[in-house]
Design a protein that fits this description.
Blueprint lengths: L4 E6 L8 H15 L3 E7 L5 E3 L12 H13 L2 E7 L8 H11 L2 E4 H5 L18 E4 L9 E7 L10 H16 L3 E7 L12 H14 L11
Parallel strand pairs: 1-2, 1-4, 4-7, 7-8
Antiparallel strand pairs: 2-3, 5-6
Helix pairs in contact: 1-6, 2-3
Length: 226
């Protein structure tokens, strides 16, 4: 039986103590218990793309080439976790650059390609050439075989799912998962308001752990947690 790979990509700085990071590490722990290999890649606003400890590093310094390599690593994964503290597309951030590289490395098609018709063969409201209406194509068919989870840590003034900031962040990350070939299967809002805090809350830790097991497709694989 081939081992599955579960990858997390976040923008939480290395060594930082955060609820978002704790949730994701709990999920990866559960995935490992289910028999999967895991890696946690951290893209900091300082521009580094590294893995959280004791896993293979893609690079120790940001370059466009290293971001491209990280995109390819994500595409090859079986399951994907994306986590963002703050706005995923914050101008000038390394995480926004990662998103841009994902789209730049995608295959793009036009309406004319999809319809199989000659240019001008489609009626477009307001006029226009079907070849000018382009959109990115997912790396592989999006199905439940490859699923993903997104985790958002919003600012303190945007504490719930219904806030436009949260909805926009979830939308950006879920569209990115689809582009990379993953079916979004769960949303987690990390508000930092859990009590007791995550580090002192065994129930929340267990929930993150079990979510990781499910994401990895745990069945017979992996022993139950002690």
């Amino acid at each position: 039986m081939t081992e599955k790979t579960v990858i997390a990509i976040t923008n939480v700085p290395l060594g930082a103590s955060s609820e978002l990071g704790g949730i994701i590490e709990g999920m990866l722990e559960g995935a490992r218990a289910a028999g999967s290999q895991t890696a946690h890649f951290v893209i900091t606003n300082g521009g580094d793309a590294r893995t959280m400890p004791e896993t293979d590093c893609v690079t120790d310094a940001y370059t466009p080439e290293s971001m491209s390599e990280l995109v390819e690593r994500a595409r090859r994964a079986d399951q994907l976790i994306l986590g963002a503290a703050g706005a995923p597309r914050k101008p000038g951030s390394a995480f926004a650059t990662f998103i841009d590289v994902c789209y730049e490395r995608s295959r793009w098609m036009s309406l004319a390609d999809v319809s199989g018709t000659e240019a001008g063969g489609l009626g477009i409201r307001g006029g226009g050439d079907p070849r000018d209406l382009k959109f990115p194509v997912p790396t592989r068919p999006v199905s439940e075989e490859h699923t993903g989870v997104v985790v958002v840590a919003p600012p303190e003034d945007a504490p719930d799912h219904d806030d436009p900031f949260c909805e926009d962040s979830f939308f950006v990350l879920e569209e990115l998962e689809r582009l990379l070939g993953f079916m979004p299967s769960g949303r987690i809002l990390s508000t930092g308001l859990f009590y007791p805090p995550l580090e002192d809350n065994p129930i929340l830790k267990q929930q993150a752990y079990e979510m990781g097991r499910r994401l990895a497709g745990a069945g017979a694989a992996g022993a139950p947690r002690e």
